[in-house]
Design a protein that fits this description.
Layout (H helix, E strand, L loop, with lengths): L1 E7 L4 E7 L5 E5 L6 H13 L3 E6 L11 H8 L3 E4 L4 H5 L1 H7 L13 E2 L5 E4 L2 E7 L8 E5 L4 E5 L2 E2 L2 E2 L9 H12 L7 E4 L5 E2 H7 L4
Parallel strand pairs: 3-4, 4-5, 5-6, 10-13
Antiparallel strand pairs: 1-2, 2-3, 7-8, 8-9, 9-10, 11-12, 13-14
Length: 213
C-alpha cells in the first residue's frame, strides 16, 4: 500500500491518500481541503498518479477533517464514505462546529454510506485496510491499520509526543488512554503512526517517550 500526506486548512490537518500500487484504487483519509487552491493540489496528485478514488475514510467527523468531503463527492462520485456510527451526530452538526470555531464556512451535514466498526476490513484493490474503533477524542474515533504497508492512520487519537484533546463534546480522557493501550500499543513496534496533525512517528517511539502513555 502506498501513502501520501498533505497538510491542509488553518488547523494544519493531515489529509492522506492511500492506494493499491497494482490497481491504483485509492482512498482519501480525512479530506481537509478548505479552498480552491487546496482542492487543486489534491486533484493534481490524483490525476498525475492515475488514481481511481473509491472511498473516503474518516477517522472522525470533526470539521477540520471533513472540509473537503463535498469536493471529493462532487468530483469523484461514486465514492463510499466510511465512518463509525457513534460520530453521526458530529456529521450532522458540521455547521455548528464551524460556528463554534468562528470559521467563515457554511457546511451541510455529512453521513456515512457505510458504517464500520472494530474488526471490519476495507478493500482497495488487492490490499486490505483493518478498522479499529478507538473512542476518546470522539465517540466514533477510528484507526485504519494497513499491515502490508506497516502503518496505522490514527486521526486525532495519537500524535508524536502527545495525544488528542478530550475537551470537545464526546471526548473522554480515560477512554482515549484505554483505546491507545488496547489498540495502538498492541501493534508491532515498527508500525509507522500517521496522525491527523503533525509529523509521523512509530508505535515503539511513542511507547518509549510519549509522556501521556
Amino acid at each position: 500500500m502506498e501513502i501520501r500526506k498533505f497538510e491542509f486548512n488553518l488547523f494544519g490537518e493531515n489529509t492522506y491518500v492511500i492506494w493499491d500500487a497494482a490497481s491504483h484504487e485509492a482512498a482519501v483519509v480525512d479530506p481537509g481541503m478548505s479552498d480552491s487552491g487546496e482542492n487543486e493540489i489534491f486533484d493534481r496528485f490524483v490525476s498525475d498518479n492515475g488514481l481511481v478514488l473509491r472511498a473516503i475514510l474518516l477517522t472522525h467527523m470533526h470539521v477540520d477533517h471533513t472540509f473537503g468531503i463535498d469536493h471529493v463527492i462532487d468530483r469523484y462520485s461514486p465514492v463510499t464514505i466510511y465512518a463509525h456510527a457513534d460520530d453521526a451526530v458530529l456529521g450532522r452538526t458540521r455547521d455548528e462546529q464551524a460556528r463554534m470555531f468562528r470559521l467563515p464556512y457554511r457546511l451541510g451535514p455529512v453521513a456515512a454510506d457505510r458504517l464500520v466498526d472494530d474488526g471490519d476490513e476495507i478493500a482497495l484493490g488487492s490490499e486490505r485496510v483493518e478498522v479499529l474503533h478507538a473512542p476518546g477524542h470522539s465517540p466514533g474515533g477510528l484507526l485504519y491499520y494497513v499491515p502490508s504497508g506497516g502503518f496505522v492512520l490514527t486521526g486525532d487519537v495519537l500524535f508524536r509526543g502527545s495525544i488528542g484533546r478530550t475537551d470537545l463534546p464526546g471526548g473522554n480522557h480515560s477512554q482515549l488512554l484505554r483505546s491507545i493501550a488496547s489498540k495502538i500499543a498492541r501493534l508491532p513496534g515498527n508500525t509507522v503512526v500517521y496522525p491527523g496533525h503533525g509529523p509521523s512517528t512509530t508505535v515503539a517511539e511513542e511507547l518509549a517517550h510519549n509522556p501521556y502513555l
